[in-house]
Amino acid sequence: MKKKLLALCLALMMAFSLAACSGGQQATAAGDGDQQNAQNNGTDLDAVQDALAGNSGDIWIWYDDSQAVIYNFSADGRVVQGSMVGNSTLPQVEGAYEVREDGIVLTNEDGSSEKTLTYTYENGTLRLFDGDREFEFSPE
Length: 140
Known about the structure:
Elements lengths: L1 H39 L4 H10 L4 E6 L2 E7 L4 E8 L2 E13 L2 E6 L5 E9 L2 E6 L2 E5 L3
Antiparallel strand pairs: 1-2, 2-3, 3-4, 4-5, 5-6, 6-7, 7-8
């Protein structure tokens, strides 16, 4: 009887430890999405703005070998966005951008469309994310 009780206790302890481990993994996976935004807390938004505007060329974020979105940021808060598919360049869209802690918000000229690029800015390196694609540069 004591052996059965000991075996039952050990089985319950193993079951609880497995449940605790899997719960921790889920929390970590869910927390990974927030890590990017958490890294921007306390970021000097003016430094990010300066990094975007100080980039002398277009920022190309490639989706695959034949498709990219192109951004050009200016110091006055304006952005020009274009796309390339294969060998064709699609019409450009002009608008404004605003740097916030939770992302860089792009708004088209008439205000009817808004898109947010997430980013990290650490040690002078700015990384922009458009979905799961990224562009990294050091503007200095």
